[in-house]
Design goal:
Blueprint (H helix, E strand, L loop, with lengths): L17 H6 L10 H8 L5 E2 H12 L10 E2 L6 E3 L8 H7 L11 E2 L6 H17 L2 H13 L2 H13 L9 H4 L11
Antiparallel strand pairs: 1-4, 2-3
Helix pairs in contact: 6-7
Bound molecules: zinc ion (2 copies).
Pfam families: DUF2039 (PF10217)
Length: about 190
């Protein structure tokens, strides 16, 4: 669809500039629509800090998919899970006293209620972060997020924050992973 942007093919190829390469990556900023804001404001209840971070991450990246209908709880096998990315229903999670996503941590946290202004600020931070990344980091990062590999995505962020000017050879290996984007939304 995006195709080639008027490539000067066949004319000696002398104009292969760095800038042209960078422009081939179409980075779309997030739409600040009301649906996104509403999703961002949905509190993720009954999660441990780690899972909460992951869910928040998805929201910020516009990768959060709310459930359209209740999902089967892995505990009671009833269709009682109403929150996306949770595997236990509220009552099972409370009964077992574990995180409703990883089912491991017993350290369930109460998420902060964020205002739309907070959310906008976070999104702006996110965009600044993406803008500061090299194209390769950004692609690597977005691919991980799309795949649901949130921890991998955070690693790229950390690497990008440490050395913004490209010296992140550790991640070359990561970047060679297969391109297919799996949907982890079981
Ligand atoms: Zn249940
Ligand atoms: Zn958890």
């Amino acid at each position: 669809m995006a195709g080639k942007v008027s490539s000067a093919k066949g004319k000696g190829g002398a104009t292969k500039s760095r800038q042209k390469y960078q422009n081939t990556f179409a980075y779309k900023p997030h739409k600040k629509d009301t649906v996104a804001l509403k999703i961002a404001a949905l509190p993720a209840k009954g999660l441990c800090q780690r899972c909460l971070d992951i869910v928040d991450w998805r929201k910020r990246m516009n990768k959060y998919k709310p459930l359209t209908q209740p999902k089967t709880c892995v505990g009671c096998k009833q269709k009682k899970v109403t929150d996306a990315y949770h595997v236990l229903c509220k009552s099972c999670a409370e009964e077992k006293n574990v995180c409703a996503k990883c089912q491991e941590s017993t350290d369930v946290v109460t998420p902060d209620i964020r205002t739309p202004a907070d959310i906008l600020r976070e999104e702006q931070d996110q965009e600044r972060l993406l803008a500061s990344m090299s194209e390769r980091q950004r692609r690597s990062y977005l691919r991980r997020v799309a795949r649901g590999d949130d921890e991998g995505a955070q690693k790229v962020v950390l690497a990008a924050e440490k050395n913004e000017d490209g010296g992140w050879s550790d991640f070359d290996d990561f970047d060679d992973e297969e391109e297919d984007e799996e949907d982890d939304d079981a």
